[in-house]
Amino acid sequence: METTRYGVRFETDGADLFVELHANDALNRQHLLERVVAILEDRHGLSVREHDNGAMTEVVHSDGSTLLAWLSISGDSTRQSLDDEGLDEILTCLAFLAYPPVVELSRCDKDGLVEALG
User: Fold this and answer.
1) Quick check: 90 and 65 in contact, CB under 8 A?
2) 21 vs 59: CA distance, rounded Å
3) Which of 5, 8, 12 lies closest to 37 in space, CA to CA?
4) What are the DSSP E strand ranges found in the chain?
5) Tell me: the pLDDT tens digits for 19-40?
């Protein structure tokens, strides 16, 4: 079975965060985000993997699946590994992308009747 490499990139001021996931399945956008969130939520192991362009953090899920994450200063191809705080930042961004919050707006009149605002 062919393995596919998926990438997620977050543009931030001065530096970009990257996540790379290898999967045997064909994933759509939603499934990719959900899989990455699941791995980052259940970090079973972390290690730093050296690469030609620097270092990356390898995150291992309890089911054995892994992903790579790194930071790259904008305009530079050098990779820097991420600590737990950096991974938490990625997880927060991904959680909102994968599971957008439901926002309910309502108005309550003088009589106590609640009306949903569209």
Assistant:
1) no
2) 10
3) 8
4) 4-11, 15-23, 43-51, 54-61, 66-73, 79-80, 105-108, 114-117
5) 999 888 888 999 999 999 999 9
